[in-house]
Design brief:
The complex is a heterodimer of chains A (about 300) and B (about 425).
Chain A: H1 8-26, E1 30-33, H2 38-51, E2 60-64, H3 70-82, E3 87-91, H4 92-98, H5 112-126, E4 130-132, E5 149-152, E6 180-183, H6 191-200, E7 212-219, E8 222-225, E9 239-244, E10 257-258, H7 264-273, H8 291-297
Parallel strand pairs in A: 1-2, 1-4, 2-3, 4-6
Antiparallel strand pairs in A: 5-6, 7-8, 7-9, 9-10
Chain B: H1 4-7, E1 11-18, H2 25-35, H3 41-54, H4 69-74, E2 81-86, E3 90-96, H5 103-111, E4 116-122, H6 129-140, E5 145-151, H7 160-173, E6 181-186, H8 210-216, E7 230-231, E8 234-236, E9 248-252, E10 257-259, E11 263-267, E12 272-279, E13 287-289, E14 293-298, E15 309-311, E16 318-329, E17 335-336, E18 340-345, E19 348-361, E20 368-370, E21 374-375, E22 380-393, E23 404-408, E24 415-421
Parallel strand pairs in B: 1-3, 1-4, 4-5, 5-6
Antiparallel strand pairs in B: 2-3, 7-15, 8-9, 9-14, 10-13, 11-12, 11-15, 12-14, 16-22, 16-24, 17-21, 18-19, 18-23, 19-20, 19-22, 23-24
Helix pairs in contact in B: 5-6
The chains are: A alpha/beta (about 300), B alpha+beta (about 425).
The complex binds guanosine-5'-diphosphate.
């Protein structure tokens, strides 16, 4: 009997594949929210596995802040091409031009909070009724109670009191006209699980996850990359450091960590010993204890 | 790092925790996460900060598991939260169910996916009504392993007598339950006694610590390897020349084993065929078993769609439109005799009618209350339903996947009931 065991990674994979297929069956027009980070790259891999040898039956949607790492954009485009998936892009700049979003002021203006506006506009425009996100419950306190099928009202808002109980593997995606769902197939994965899985499945990642030299500035303990979107303060200056990224987002607020980890094994070792959550390096989560929850209510991933 | 290889290939154990308010559940979970180094420094900083703001005199580990803002303000938890930690041996998923209002509904939800339940008892209080309720729910949901943690042993001088008395009190009523494996551990969640390491304060206790028990309890044999079932979830038809004739019946194995070349039956049509291949993106397999997600191709062209059930000709699930169910009601809008709902079962769904409410269970005493015409939120009762088309199911006792259902309100689309087929 013991030969009929599945490892934790196999079980997590199976659960995620089940979710992808369930959404394909229960919804009209699902879409995969693709941030360019390792979690969404892992999701694309899982989606391919769910429908193989057919192609992934959903497009990817990237909400582009315009402040991306160039390496991440290149990777995004080549991934879409390689697996023959449609790539839909929503530009935060378009929302700003339309006047539906307003740029933050300050030295490192984050467009993260604006992403939710563009996202909701794109979801409506595309008629998408289910959007897959790479959110995990271990990431942040507010996510610990998140469902696999997370209901959003007609304004794209999340009401913590109005979420459906999820029992066994029975997922209820029924909704009224105009309502939609966010779907989190890797809810039960931890950061470590994702890295182990990437290694096991030999999933390719953008180069910036691995150790490299970069010009950065230290801003309240966070290493911020030199980029056209960042302005130096008085007394600040860029310096070369050997760093890597644990998460990808807006260049203006995504902090790098000093690291020489250049292989997946190095990274796994580093994650095992890490003293900070991935989000700990994102300046926007530090702004308030309930920051994540507030953004979620507005429709952020 | 000699462990590294093993780390890639750990087991997975899902457990739920139950206790009434202030028994120390949050402290225990916080301790397990803290002592297994599953908590990051920035999270610790955040709770240190919160503890200070609240005026707590020590870092309150319980805050780690405290979820949403509204709840934080009220100081209560009202929904199931999922927590994660791992040791080199196993990854653990905790369904942390709150001890307050709507308890039954939350515990049923958390227990539905759990292999094991931890039931907490405050050593000063002993077995109380809630303890019985938690144990009954664990039993009803067919959780095979229960660890009764008698907590706050530090407040009763680590007394063996107190522990033994509570243990025999518990064993006195558990005769009514169907839990094959019950263990008792005296702990102090606050000080860590017997949580990760054996306690030095309780020489009289010879058993293993809680974490050791969680790491070593055998769960593989709890799965059903006899009754082969695969509900068809999706049909894969690639629009490509290379796979022009490919028809893959995709699904997650719900029980038993399927092997290449074996004969299978497809329900409801009753047609039989042989398994031509078991497909995954990483290659073909010779056998597939629960809970793998795969795609089957068959030798013969038969019409198969989502909601169909694939089984073995000599071992088929039951098929009926008249089904008896133990249901837990989840919604403030109560269940009424004669009303209609949508029933979701495996990958299938149908309309159904509530034909009879046989009885309601008093979850504290396990007494049956007959002659009721409705169930309220958090009630558990046995009902009879009629479905608009036959379902292919097994009793929940035999298979948790093919024996479970949810009921959906047609008008609000909410999930209102959770049921176990009898
Ligand atoms: N002395 C002692 N106090 C404990 C122990 N476990 C928890 N507590 C305290 O009991 C109170 C309630 O604990 P908490 O974990 O919040 O309980 P919950 O409501 O079950 O989550 C807190 O003040 C804890 O510090 C223990 O083992 N010994």
């Amino acid at each position: 009997m013991s030969s009929l065991n599945l490892s934790h990674l196999d079980q997590l994979e199976s659960e995620a594949i089940f979710i992808f297929r369930e959404v394909a069956a229960q919804f009209e027009k699902p879409v995969i929210l693709f941030s360019g980070g390792k979690d969404s790259i892992t999701m694309v891999h899982l989606a391919r596995k769910a429908f193989w040898p057919a192609k992934v039956p959903f497009p990817l949607l990237h909400i582009d802040t315009g402040h991306n790492f160039p390496e991440a954009l290149e990777f995004r485009d080549s991934l879409a091409k390689k697996y023959n998936v449609t790539l839909d892009i929503g530009l935060v700049q378009d929302s700003i031009d339309r006047g539906t979003a307003r740029e933050e002021k300050g030295i490192n203006p984050s467009r993260n909070s604006l992403q939710s506006i563009t996202l909701l506009e794109k979801l409506e425009e595309g008629g998408y009724d289910a959007a897959f996100g790479g959110g995990r419950r271990d990431e942040e306190k507010a996510r610990a109670k998140e469902r696999f099928f997370s209901h959003r009202d007609e304004f794209g808002q999340w009401d913590p009191k109005n979420q459906r109980p999820e029992l066994w593997n029975l997922y209820n995606g029924k909704k009224a006209v105009g309502e939609s769902f966010r779907i989190f197939p890797i809810s039960n994965w931890t950061e470590m699980d994702v890295w182990q899985y990437i290694k096991k499945e030999k999933i390719e990642l953008p180069s910036i996850y691995f150790s490299h030299k970069r010009s950065v500035v230290n801003r309240s303990g966070v290493w911020i990359a030199e980029s056209p979107y960042n302005t130096l303060l008085e007394k600040e200056s860029y310096e070369e450091r050997v760093i890597r990224y644990r998460t990808l987002g807006c260049m203006t607020i995504t902090g790098a960590i000093e690291s020489t980890a250049s292989t997946l094994d190095d990274i796994i070792e580093e994650v095992a010993a890490a003293r900070q959550t991935e989000r700990g390096n994102r300046a926007d989560d530090k702004r308030s204890e309930a920051a994540m929850e507030d953004r979620k209510k507005q429709g952020y991933f | 790092m000699t462990e590294k290889k093993g780390y890639m290939d750990m087991d997975l154990l899902r457990f739920t925790t139950a206790g009434s308010v202030d028994d120390g559940k949050s402290t225990l979970i916080g301790r397990l996460m803290y002592d297994t180094k599953s908590i990051f420094q920035d999270q610790i900083d955040a709770i240190e900060e919160s503890s200070k703001n609240r005026g707590d005199e020590y870092v309150n580990l319980a805050l780690l598991t405290d979820g949403l803002k509204a709840e934080r303000e009220q100081g209560i938890t009202i929904d199931v939260a999922y927590r994660y930690f791992a040791t080199p041996k196993r990854k653990f998923i905790i369904a942390d169910t709150p001890g307050h209002i709507q308890y039954t509904r939350n515990m049923v939800t958390g227990a539905s996916t759990a292999n094991l339940a931890i039931i907490l008892i405050d050593a000063r209080k002993g077995v109380i009504e809630q303890t019985k309720r938690h144990s009954f729910i664990a039993s009803l949901l067919q959780i095979k392993h229960v660890i009764v943690c008698i907590n706050k042993m530090d407040l009763v001088d680590y007394s063996e007598d107190v522990f033994e008395n509570i243990k025999s009190e518990y064993l006195g009523f558990d005769a009514k339950l169907e839990i094959p494996d019950i263990r008792f551990i005296p702990i102090s969640a606050l000080h860590g006694d017997n949580v990760v390491d054996r306690s030095k304060n309780m020489d009289w206790y010879q058993g293993p610590s809680l974490l050791w028990t969680l790491e070593n309890v055998q769960i593989a044999s709890d799965r059903n390897f006899i009754d082969s079932r695969m509900p068809v979830q999706w049909v894969i038809r690639p629009q490509s020349d290379k796979y022009h004739d490919f028809r893959g019946f995709a699904g997650t194995i719900n029980g038993g084993v399927f092997r290449k070349g074996e004969e299978v039956v497809v329900l409801p049509s009753g047609f039989t065929s042989k398994i031509k291949s078991i497909e995954t993106m990483n290659g073909q397999l010779n056998e597939a078993y629960a809970p793998m997600s795969i795609a089957l191709t068959l030798e013969d062209e038969i019409d198969i769609s989502r909601g169909d059930m694939i089984a073995k000709p000599n071992n088929q699930p039951k098929s009926s439109q008249d089904i008896e169910i133990m249901v837990c009601w989840l919604n403030t809008n109560g269940l009424k005799l004669g009303s209609k709902y949508i029933i979701k079962h495996t990958t299938n769904e149908a309309k159904c009618l509530i034909k009879d409410i046989r009885y309601k269970v008093n979850v504290n005493t396990l007494e049956k209350i007959e002659g009721v015409d409705g169930l309220e939120v958090n009630d558990i009762g046995r009902i009879q339903i009629k479905t608009a088309k036959p379902l292919f199911y097994d009793p929940y006792m035999k298979n948790r996947n093919t024996g479970s259902i949810i009921l959906i309100d047609e008008f609000t689309n909410e999930t209102v009931g959770a049921g176990m087929i009898i």
